[in-house]
Design brief:
37% helix, alpha/beta, binds zinc ion, Arginase, Chain A, two-stranded antiparallel sheet
């Protein structure tokens, strides 16, 4: 694999977004002695930026970000919802759902995060560098008219629509390896056959039936023309490096390869990380290197090498930067030799294999490539 350079899209507004403190992600009840910062803390991306600057700086271009336009936003989000979010932020913010909150700065941050996703997508068609939107807030839980899961605008969905609507791509594949189900992205493309959505996630339930009606179960296949183009792969706790490798072997690579996209977008949440407080999938830096390497190879085999990384979750602020460095090393085809400094739990690869085989069997009619 040839070595690549990295183009990182960053805006300082990403740091100013701050959801309300409480009891971890939940609202403060007054029962505890200590208020805790919300898990979506600006330190998350500050640490990612710092590790990039102190390990692979010589192969990185830092790029400024233009905010998303109303036209680009409107391809995914209802204008009334966008206006209401702007007014909510202007009024000082607060909690929009039980776990999702904003402050005055969140409007500007969210518009720049979505803008970064649009710009990295254009970059993928212009240069050989690997484009990476190091953005915050994340996007993949945001639905057309609903904030959810720390997300307001669905950055990766806006990017996919931008590629389609501007004629850059006819078919777009989105691979979401964030440990939570990309329910907003699923919602945006559920009846579409031009955007394939594959989500690998820790099996979990809807945490809020009103704001989050999707379940992430394997039987949410898509509807109408989109039937078969929505692939959920719920994974058991402890799936680990080997379990994810099996999911790539059995489902991700055969299906995306058969779909033959013009562009591969990654919802790159590194919260499958081994000590992440919001996931149980125990992936180490070495595992994330494999994610990056396999995504790169898949893009070269099926999308003319057009690969884009858009930051999603990852909440242990010391492990997230190492995990993300792993993704970047794999996708750039380089090795820093830096090891994961964290102890990790044993994997439960047998449970993972059974779960992945069940999903593959259910999809074999629609995607014969998985039936091997
Ligand atoms: Zn997540």
């Amino acid at each position: 694999m040839t070595e690549k350079n990295l183009a990182v899209y960053w805006d300082d507004s990403f740091l100013a977004h701050e959801p309300p403190a409480g009891e971890f992600e939940a609202e403060w009840t007054g029962r505890l002695a200590v208020k805790e910062p919300h898990p979506d803390r600006e330190e998350r991306i500050r640490n990612i930026r710092h590790i990039i600057e102190h390990t692979i700086a010589d192969r990185v271009d830092w790029e400024p970000v233009d905010p998303v336009t109303d036209e680009q936003l409107a391809r995914v989000h209802e204008p009334e919802y966008v206006d209401a979010f702007e007014r909510f932020c202007e009024a000082g913010g607060g909690r929009l759902t039980a776990e999702t909150g904003a402050n005055e700065a969140s409007w500007t941050a969210a518009r720049h995060a979505a803008g970064a996703a649009v710009q990295v997508t254009e970059r993928a068609f212009e240069s050989d560098e690997l484009p990476y939107a190091l953005c915050r807030p994340s996007g993949h839980h945001a639905q057309p008219a609903q904030a959810d899961g720390f997300c307001f605008f669905n950055n990766v969905a806006i990017a996919a629509e931008h590629a389609r609507e501007t004629g850059l791509a006819d078919r777009v594949a989105i691979l979401d390896w964030d440990v939570h189900h990309g329910n907003g992205t699923q919602e945006a493309f559920y009846d579409r056959d031009d955007v394939l959505f594959v989500s690998l996630h820790n099996e979990h339930w809807s945490w809020d039936p009103e704001a989050h009606p999707q379940t992430g179960d394997g039987d949410e296949y898509g509807a109408g023309d989109g039937y078969g183009y929505n692939l959920n792969v719920p994974l058991p706790p402890g799936t680990g490096n080997d379990g994810y490798a099996y999911a790539f072997d059995r489902i991700v690579e055969p299906v995306i390869g058969a779909f033959d996209p013009d562009l591969l977008l990654i919802s790159a949440g590194q919260d499958p990380g081994t000590v992440d407080p919001l996931g149980r999938c125990v992936v180490t830096k070495e595992g994330f290197e494999t994610f990056g390497r396999r995504a790169r190879r898949l893009s070269e085999q099926s999308a003319d090498g057009r690969l884009v990384l858009v930051q999603e979750g990852g909440y242990q602020i010391s492990h997230l930067p190492y995990a993300t460095l792993g993704v970047l090393e794999g996708a750039l085809g380089i090795e820093t030799g830096i090891e994961d400094p964290f102890a990790w739990l044993d994997e439960d690869v047998e449970s993972a294999r059974r779960a992945i085989d069940d999903v593959a069997t259910a999809f074999a009619d629609r995607w014969p490539a998985v039936d091997t």
